[in-house]
Design goal:
By secondary structure, the chain is of the alpha+beta class. The chain folds into two domains: 6-104 and 189-244, Gyrase A, domain 2, CATH 3.30.1360; 118-187, no CATH class. It is 38% helix and 24% strand. The protein has a five-stranded antiparallel beta sheet with strand order 1-2-3-9-4. It has a two-stranded antiparallel sheet with strand order 5-6. Helix 1 (35-42) crosses helix 2 and helix 6 (199-209) runs antiparallel to helix 7. The longest helix has 21 residues, at 152-172. It is elongated and about 80 Å long. The chain starts with 5 loop residues before the first strand and ends with a helix. The relative contact order is 0.19.
């Protein structure tokens, strides 16, 4: 039996899995888990559900007027497999709780993120890239200054494969995994981890990381999470899209 509720494949070896949610079951015989948010708001005056139409109206009022505390009453836990260059940005969101795999305990599999194309640097945005891609790199032979082209992807694959062979050889020879991993190409490596947050902060993550200014790779993970969010909290997602477009 699968040990997740929802799963989305991301990039070439990655995924996002929803492994747990609070509440796990839809409570009170309601139509959606969103009722937990509504009832949390009504706790202020010891109220409870008033039916789907009025409950959804209150939910819309809460979000529109930035009364976000009730949205923190739903928590979502994900298992994520992503390359380090994605985790590097993801962990900037300090409203999440994380627990990542350790290369001290486990050997890394022979899996690296290989882009479909190599984006060009944006000439205006110093931290961003353009949609234009290339796979050609011009090298020059210093003695004769003769130029020749190589494939960036081929060059990259040779590099990561060589690094992994060195890593595996050292591990096989008894070198500690915690040091042997120094031979691995860090930003290309896939790491698997657990990441947990609440609905309020998850919507903030989705808003920021699906934006066109976010790095392309993390946008793919944010879009995968957005799909899952729409399934488990449909009322909240409907309001989010209505207000944010």
């Amino acid at each position: 039996m699968d040990n997740y509720l929802y799963r989305e494949e991301v990039l070439d070896h990655g995924f996002v899995e929803l492994v747990d949610i609070m509440p796990y079951e839809i409570p009170y015989g309601a139509e959606s888990r969103d009722i937990v948010i509504v009832n949390a708001a009504r706790t202020s005056y010891l109220g409870e559900s008033k039916g789907t139409e009025l409950d959804k109206r209150l939910l819309r009022y809460l979000y529109k007027n930035k009364h976000f505390t009730p949205f923190e009453m739903v928590e979502l836990k994900f298992r994520v497999k992503a390359p380090v260059l994605v985790w590097w940005q993801w962990t900037r969101h300090r409203t999440w709780n994380y627990n990542l795999q350790s290369g001290r305990y486990t050997e890394y599999p022979d899996e690296f993120y290989i882009p479909d194309g190599w984006r060009l640097q944006d000439s205006v945005n110093k931290q961003g890239s353009t949609e234009e891609t290339t796979d050609t790199l011009m090298l020059y032979d210093p003695p004769y200054h003769q130029g020749y082209e190589i494939s960036i992807t081929k060059f990259y694959k040779n590099m990561v494969e060589s690094c992994y062979e060195l890593y595996q050889d050292l591990v096989d020879r008894g070198v500690a995994k915690e040091q042997a991993r120094l031979f691995l190409p860090g930003f290309a490596m896939y790491h698997t981890g657990i990441a947990k947050t609440d609905a309020r902060n998850l919507l903030g993550f989705i808003s920021l990381r699906t934006d066109e200014h976010a790095q392309w790779e993390i946008r793919q993970y944010a879009k995968a999470i957005e799909k899952i969010f729409a399934e488990v909290l449909p009322w909240t997602y409907e309001v989010y899209k209505e207000i944010n477009g």
